[in-house]
Amino acid sequence: MKRWCKLFAALALIAWPSVARSQVFGQWTTARILPVNGHSFGAQLELSDHVSALMGNLRLSFYPNVDFGFQGGVTRTQIEGSNIGTVRLAADLKAGALRTTNGAPLDLAFGAFVGLEAGDRLGRLVIGPSVVASRGFSTNGVERFIPYAGIQARYTQFSFHESQSNDFSLPIRLGCQFPVVQGFRAIGEVQFRVGDDIDDHLAYGFGVDFDI
């Protein structure tokens, strides 16, 4: 437990100044990279058979073609007949590889992430690389929606009570971002957690995102 507390504290110090749009617990963003000095904030509700989560996130950029995300939130988890409240904190970075503004057929970005979840006798550490692709569709010169697909290669270290386990999975996120007004977007997402022996295999959610 001391190990989890130290990890939790370290990640909290990283994320606290901008309590979280990270891609760790859900994708919730396209492959587009924020402009330098750009900021966006979002909030999401995620639901599955045994977990409900309310997340907040912040994304920012201070280097060309690279942006960073921070994520934080709370969950209610049903496990082994108990309802447990947990706190999630996470961070990631994303670097653009293809851009439709440069003539590519889609936007493509690669990244890496680390996340931590802690609750009563429950601890989780997740880490790994990620990739996301997206493309916007317009009518009459106005962008109407931006579907995206993301995948992670995720290593998970999980503990509950006295038991511990390690897991490798390939969570796939399929979603769509809908511009509502200038600088404000609605998001819907479905998550397929391929090969995951810890989490529910299917989750879905919705959220909002806006520039700040």
Distance between the termini: 37 Å
Would you state the CATH class? Mainly Beta
Percent range for β-strand residues: over 45%
Order of helices and strands: HEEEEEEEEEEEE
CATH architecture: Beta Barrel
- Main beta sheet, described? 12 strands, antiparallel
Share of helical residues:
under 10%
Structural class: mainly beta
**Into how many domains do the coordinates divide?**
1
- Gyration radius (Cα, Å) is 17 Å
Give the strand tally: 12
CATH topology: Lipocalin
- Our count of helices gives 1
Folded structure, characterized:
The protein has 212 residues and is mainly beta. It has one domain: Beta Barrel (Lipocalin), CATH 2.40.128. The protein is built from one helix and twelve strands; from the N terminus they run αββββββββββββ. Strands 1, 2, 3, 4, 5, 6, 7, 8, 9, 10, 11 and 12 form a twelve-stranded antiparallel β-sheet that branches. It is elongated. The protein starts with a helix and ends with a strand. The N terminus is likely disordered.
